[in-house]
Amino acid sequence: MRAVLLLALVGLFIILAGCFEQPQTNVQNNTSVVENKTKPVVLPSFTIVSPEENEEIKVDGKSGSVTVILSTKDLVIKKSGQNKIGEGHFVFVLDDGEPIDVYEKSYTLENVGVGDHTLQIEIVHNDGSSYIPRISKSLHFTVAPTVKEYVPTTYTVTIKDFSYEPSYLEVNVGDTVVWINSGNYPRTATCIDFFTTGIVAAGKNASVVMTKPFECDYFSLNYPAMKAHIKVNPTPGSEG
After folding, report:
1. Correct CATH for 154-233 of 2.60.40.420, 1.10.357.20, 2.60.120.560, 1.10.10.60
2. Is the peptide bond between 166 and the residue preceding it cis, with omega within 30 degrees of 0?
3. Would you say 162 and 185 are in contact if contact means Cβ atoms under 8 Å apart?
4. Strands 223-233 and 214-220
5. Which uninterrupted H or E stretch holds 7?
6. What mean pLDDT is predicted for residues 29-33?
7. Which of 136, 70, 65 is nearest to 103 (CA)?
8. Smallest Cα–Cα separation from 226: which of 187, 171, 176?
9. According to CATH, what is the number of the domain 45-145?
10. Residue 25 burial class via C-beta count within 10 angstroms: exposed 0-12, middle 13-18, buried 19 and up
11. What is the pTM of this model?
12. pLDDT (tens digit, 9 = 90+) per residue, 199-235?
């Protein structure tokens, strides 16, 4: 009897315990993870489009113009204002010369002399200070004179009875000199080791093409006292 009563009490306890048990709430805590990512700083950049590295630029005379063309990325070109990443302008320094502020993507350097040159180009802030790290490039180029094809010239010397006119003549290699005898006597125009016209009869002419540089007094073989002077220079643009 006691055993039955004990079992009944245990069963009642289990029932009551089940009634008072708190239901488990399965709450899933979906917490949004906020990643504090800092956007990377994007610095401006540029490319030198023209001239190319080590390019030879032809000019007329001893100096000329050199146009520099640039392309940019992430750069707003400004002349003033507070410093801001992505804004600024260029500074050019040619051969350690004075800095030049440049506010265009195309800029022409004037009166650049013949020879080798180095151009330093840098992007700077609106106030002219350098970015950190510096944004700069170097360009090397050569300015060379244009060699024009020489067009030979023909010169005329008149042979008088006892003189040449003109008595002094300066020509270039490749030029032609024509001696016209307007006198009454046969004459020559002879420069020992360089040229001779041979005998030029009265009313006739003879020509000589100058093939190398030289300078001399020439004369007539049959009248040596009759003299004139000629100077032959190297062809313009040649090395001589």
Report:
1. 2.60.40.420
2. yes
3. no
4. antiparallel
5. helix 2-20
6. 45
7. 70
8. 187
9. 2.60.40.10
10. exposed
11. 0.56
12. 999 999 999 999 999 999 999 999 999 999 999 999 9
Q: What stretch of H or E contains 96?
A: none
Residue 142 near residue 56 (C-beta atoms within 8 A): yes
Amino acid at 148: K
Beta carbons within 8 Å of 135's beta carbon, 6+ residues apart:
43, 44, 45, 46, 122, 123
**Which residue type occupies 77?**
I
Query: What mean pLDDT value characterizes the chain?
Result: 88
Between CA 228 and CA 163 the distance in angstroms is: 8
Q: Residue 171: CA atoms inside 13 Å, Cβ hemisphere, count?
A: 25
Residue 140 in contact with residue 114, Cβ under 8 Å?
Answer: no
What type of residue is 144? A
